[in-house]
Design goal:
Chain B: This is Permease prefix domain 1-containing protein. Chain B: Keywords: Membrane, Transmembrane, Transmembrane helix. Chain B: InterPro entries: Perm_prefix_1 (IPR047928). Chain B: It comes from Nocardioides eburneus. The complex is a heterodimer. In chain A, 62% of the residues lie in helices and 15% in strands. Chain A is α+β, with helices and mostly antiparallel strands. Chain A has a single domain, classed as Arc Repressor Mutant, subunit A (Orthogonal Bundle). A three-stranded antiparallel sheet of chain A has the order 1-3-2. The longest helix of chain B has 38 residues. In chain B, 35% of the residues are buried. About 3% of the residues of chain B have low confidence. The chains are: A alpha+beta, B mainly alpha.
């Protein structure tokens, strides 16, 4: 399934914030988690995650620190208090969108299922 | 991981690092990503070569990536945002346009000297020259017709106000208006510089950077020009010819006008922030200014006669505050917003505290004097500018303190500074437009 570019872009920030809400992480692990959560449907060009993380860092929503694991230098990111607030706010916004979509779709029978049931 | 992969990673690093927008630390971060990805792919059965190719491909096209980094790290490549010109094959070469506009600006000044009085030419010089600079950016950024027309109307309105107001001679509110008008004109240049998108924080900051570099280039051009005209004059005098009139009425004013455009073009032609001079000067002069302020404070409180504090001291204090706000602004313009607070941030905090302390003393003395002697246009202008700068510094103090203590990101200070820029324009507009009628053109 192909997911529209705008939708991927819109969901990127809340997803990254939410994953960091689960615990500190780093770029590659965040991308793996996104693939896992979306069953592989939601993925973008890997490199694009980094400017996004840097933006969140500049806005003070996450903090970053370097450490070396088995000779590999990694930049770890952690959610700040402000990041937690931003996450809560995004979550509410997305919930409104999701509920609205849910309600309108409940009444419309999906075409594929309709064909199978009839 | 094999030696071939290491070699390939090194090659990839060199290739990516050539992009000015991608810093070495970003490449480090992505290298870790690349290696993690290769490990995972090898674990599911790919050989190292294949794994490396897939990992690099997943990381994305380096050009697109570099653009994305440039968008986030504007400070690394500030010019790129405003100068985003696609293929402009059929456009006139930029230097030709600059040359033409420079010559036109010089001619405008020359015609002004020929037809207007000396005082009027000096007062109107920015009006004669800066519209050409605005025109250069309007052309370069391809601003919309609406923006261009609005700019022209604003310039015309300013010209009318400066020259048609019934000022009572070349003093008082007239001089105030003439001194503040260039600020408004410069803001209009800024609108053209940002391609008409004056609300964008990023473009405002780019214009601040441009302004700093422009001042430095202009000063250098002026120095060179002075040396050259001095030599020429000396040679002519040695020949027994009198070059004064030619210098005063032709060469110096026309050269000064043309240099405005040439300096702008030189700044535009530069590549990256690494070459910027204004932030370097900021670092040099911030500690020196702290020393100056401490000396001033000691002088004011210890030796100075505060009852003798007059408007002149307030004006000097205004200039000191302009310097301090400028130092803060230029430090902000070049700072990596992600870097943790360092000694320079603390020094800057000290600078702001010192400036506020000195200003408090001067302000108190001034308010007492005004209560005794009443308000004049000059006092209102000096006091108003003082308050405008004071508000900026007070909030900057609050935000930098929060940043140094790790309570707020640096971004907040940058946001405040760029957001405050229109206030300067608004205050200048008040002095130019409202103050003269309020004080009956005295």
């Amino acid at each position: 399934m192909h997911i529209d570019k705008d939708l991927v872009a819109a969901s990127a920030t809340p997803l990254v914030l939410a994953i960091l809400g689960e615990g500190d992480s780093y770029g590659y692990a965040i991308l793996k988690r996104i693939r896992e959560l979306s069953g592989g449907h939601l993925s973008w060009t890997d490199g694009m995650l980094y400017p996004l993380l840097h933006r969140l860092e500049r806005q003070g929503l996450v903090t970053a620190s370097w450490d070396t694991v088995e000779g590999r230098k990694r930049k770890h990111y952690a959610l700040t208090a402000a990041g937690g607030d931003a996450l809560a706010e995004r979550r509410q916004q997305w919930q409104v969108v999701a509920e609205a979509l849910d309600r309108v779709w409940r009444d419309v029978v999906p075409p594929a299922t309709a064909g199978g049931m009839a | 991981m094999g030696a071939t992969t290491d070699a390939r990673v090194d090659e990839w690093r060199r290739y990516v690092q050539r992009r000015a927008a991608i810093a070495a630390s970003d490449v480090d971060e992505m290298e870790a990503h690349l290696r993690d990805q290769v490990d995972d792919l090898v674990a599911v059965g790919l050989d190292e070569d294949e794994a490396f190719l897939v990992a690099v491909k997943r990381l994305g096209n380096v050009d697109a990536l570099s653009q994305e980094f440039a968008r986030e790290h504007a400070d690394r490549l500030w010019k790129q945002h405003v100068a985003s010109s696609p293929a402009d094959g059929e456009r006139a070469p930029e230097f030709g346009v600059v040359l033409l506009l420079g010559v036109l600006a010089a001619l405008a000044v020359r015609v002004g000297i020929a037809v207007l009085s000396d005082q009027t030419v000096v007062g109107n010089a920015p009006l004669l020259v800066l519209p050409f600079l605005g025109g250069y950016f309007a052309w370069k950024r391809r601003v919309s017709v609406t923006v261009a027309l609005t700019g022209l109307v604003a310039v015309a309105a300013l010209a009318v106000v400066l020259n048609a107001y019934p000022f009572d001679g070349f003093k008082g509110t007239h001089v105030l208006a003439l001194v503040h008008a260039p600020v408004l004109l410069w803001c209009l240049v800024g609108v053209a510089y940002g391609g008409g998108r004056w609300r964008s924080r990023r473009r405002r900051m780019d214009f601040v950077r441009f302004t700093g570099e422009w001042v430095i280039y202009y000063a250098l051009l002026a120095l060179g020009g002075m040396a050259l005209t001095g030599l020429t004059a000396a040679a002519f005098v040695a020949l027994g010819l009198e070059p004064d009139a030619a210098l005063a009425e032709w060469i110096v004013p026309m050269g000064a006008a043309g240099a405005v455009l040439v300096a702008a073009w030189l700044v535009e032609a530069k590549q990256s922030i690494i070459e910027n001079m204004a932030p370097v000067l900021t670092r040099v002069f911030t500690p020196l200014t702290v020393v100056l302020l401490v000396a001033l404070f000691v002088g004011l409180v210890g030796g100075g006669d505060l009852s003798a504090v007059d408007r002149q001291l307030l004006m000097v204090m205004d200039l000191v505050l302009v310097l301090v706000v400028g130092l803060v602004l230029y430090a902000v313009s070049a700072r990596d917003p992600l870097a943790p607070p360092g000694w320079f941030d603390r020094l800057q905090l000290l600078l702001v505290v010192c400036a506020l302390a000195v200003d408090a003393v001067v302000l108190v003395a001034m308010v007492v004097r005004i209560a005794d002697a009443g308000l004049t246009a000059n006092k209102v202008a000096a006091l108003g500018l003082n308050l405008v700068l004071l508000v900026n510094l007070l909030r900057s103090l609050q935000l930098s303190t929060a940043f140094v203590r790790g309570r707020r990101p640096f971004d907040a200070l940058e946001r405040w500074q760029t957001g405050y820029l229109p206030v300067y324009a608004a205050w200048a507009a008040v002095v130019v437009i409202a103050l003269p009628p309020l004080f009956h053109w005295a």
